[in-house]
Specification:
By secondary structure, the chain is an alpha+beta fold. It contains eleven helices and 28 strands.
């Protein structure tokens, strides 16, 4: 049997690096709560996004790949999933129309409205691009030319042409009136997966590709104007309404580019997994990014600082905010469609709020009496004598007492902090620590360099909680890192190998159980359809 020190692994130079994050002296570790997630705070920004209430969750049978709002009130929205495009009524959040005449095209992509809200264009897996009349649901035009799936389809701002990008690496322009192809633009070396127009111009297009580049096109010359290297496969692109700023999403990064100079402005890397979709609000003050990490991040378009985040139950594939800023619609990879609605204040509510505000101000004025806060009073200084009859208010704020693992975390002693949390038998505290390590990109630090006796408590914690739905997303990442770090020395400890085998068997049984449950759900749906 090896000694306890023979199992230890030296920390890599990367693991020994400082995490790079500071922590206020009185800041406690954010604790996870079950089943809801940690509160976002009570700032005006958080209050605004929390006003998007009454979430409606609808289930589709395939991933929701695209969402688009009609520019015309009441701003219906089109949801593209599987082989159909569904038009939703924003007032009832129900399907108003269904465009399902794409059966011969296989899967449908990129259902988008025209500026007048009367027509919709979508591409198919077969490469065809179809234009439908929304009111009659008839197909008005079918454009054939792509040899592979047409992933991107858009009407030009002048409403007379259509742009389509495809897995065949080409960008094509079509004339809506004649149905003819006007041009084919080549330059990408991999699938084109996203595209948009530069606001104010019908001849300047932007496309993103899996060849890691974003290209700016001039359809008049059918040439590339500029190329931006995102360094990762590009999932979505967005040009700000001003027409001078471009955002590109790929991997876990959102990059902001200046179209005038062609230079990179900043890189936003708040996500832990691939960013799949981008959006911007009607006031042009907030940028959205949705990711497979089940998070929507909201940034200020002035400073590009993160101002808020929203957690969702599944990996996000698409998102859109209504032109009136009243509906936030999100599509997920498991077919879940989430609709959040922010109700408008009617005239009676506004009058009532003004009344209560005025009444509050009057009460404050009466409480102050005739006291005048003039310049001399405000500049009296700390040594001024207390006036007769003055009331002295002392602070009741007490410094928060930190728990042992929080004190160690504050001093960046990550390994000792993890040990202290495990000894406290507080499973939520341990989970919160792991999420904090992942957020700081420092998960290797507390896991590396452990001998057999130090590693066993961590493995026992994983064995007890790794199959619990609330714990699984985080603990699976921890389990993967432990395997990567200690793979070369696993044969030195029978105890460690035995508990790792138990975890492996437990995960296999959980997978089999989930597969059986999915089969049962499928049978029930089949019986229900009959």
């Amino acid at each position: 049997m090896p000694t306890e020190h023979s199992f230890s692994v030296k920390k890599s130079s990367r693991a020994r690096e400082h995490a790079g994050f500071d922590m206020d002296t009185g800041l406690k570790l954010p604790r996870k709560t079950i089943p809801s997630f940690a509160a976002q705070g009570t700032s005006p920004e958080a209050g605004y996004w929390k006003s998007f209430k009454f979430p409606v969750v609808l289930e589709h049978y395939a991933p929701i790949t695209h969402i688009d709002f009609s520019p015309v009130a009441p701003h219906e929205f089109a949801v593209t999933s599987s082989s159909k495009v569904q038009i939703y009524d924003p007032n009832t959040n129900t399907v108003k129309r269904q465009l399902a005449r794409f059966n011969n095209d296989g899967e449908v992509f990129g259902g988008s409205f025209r500026q007048d809200g009367r027509l919709l264009v979508a591409g198919g897996e077969s490469g065809n691009v179809r234009v439908c009349d929304i009111s009659s649901r008839t197909v008005l035009r079918t454009f054939s030319g792509h040899t592979q799936a047409a992933r991107v389809t858009r009407f030009t701002p002048d409403n007379v042409h259509i742009m389509s990008g495809s897995d065949d690496k080409t960008l094509r322009c079509w004339d809506l009136a004649s149905g003819e192809q006007l041009g084919v633009m080549t330059g990408h070396t991999d699938h084109i997966r996203c595209g948009c127009f530069v606001p104010g111009s019908s001849s300047t297009w932007v496309t993103g590709s899996y060849d890691h580049t974003v290209r700016l096109w001039d359809t008049k010359t059918q040439e590339t104007i500029a190329v931006f290297d995102h360094e990762h496969p590009v999932e979505d692109v967005l040009v700000f309404p001003g027409g001078t700023i471009l955002a590109s999403a790929g991997s876990n990064e959102v990059k902001i580019w200046d179209l005038l100079t062609g230079k990179l402005v900043t890189t936003l890397n708040q996500h832990q997994k691939t960013v799949t979709s981008l959006g911007i609000d009607h006031q042009r003050s907030r940028l959205f990014s949705g990711s497979l990490d089940q998070q929507i991040k909201i940034y200020s378009t002035e400073t590009y600082n993160l101002v808020h985040g929203i957690k969702y139950p599944g990996p996000i594939m698409s998102l859109a905010l209504s032109p009136a800023n009243t509906h936030l619609v999100v599509g997920m990879s498991d077919g879940i469609l989430s609709i959040r609605h922010r109700p408008k204040e009617d005239s009676n509510t506004v009058v009532a709020n003004n009344y209560y505000k005025q009444a509050r101000e009057e009460r404050i004025h009466q409480a102050k009496g005739d006291q005048v806060f003039d310049r001399l009073f405000l500049e009296r200084g700390v040594n001024a004598k207390k006036p007769e009859g003055a009331v002295v208010v002392t602070s009741t704020h007490r410094k928060q007492k930190l728990k042992p693992y929080e004190e160690l975390l504050k001093r960046f002693q990550y390994g000792l902090a993890l040990d202290a949390a495990i000894k406290s038998n507080d499973s939520i505290a341990v989970l919160s620590l792991f999420e904090e390590f992942i957020y700081r990109q420092a998960l290797d630090i507390p896991l590396s360099g452990r001998n057999e006796l130090e590693l066993l408590p961590v493995l026992n914690y994983l064995l007890s909680h790794i199959t619990k739905p609330f714990f699984a997303p985080t603990l699976l990442q921890v389990f993967d890192r432990i395997i990567d770090i200690y793979l070369s020395v696993l044969n030195q400890s029978m105890k460690v190998r035995r508990i790792l085998q138990k975890i492996n068997d437990l995960l296999h049984r959980e997978i089999e159980l989930q597969e059986d449950l999915h089969s049962i759900v499928g049978l029930l749906e089949l019986l229900g359809s009959k």
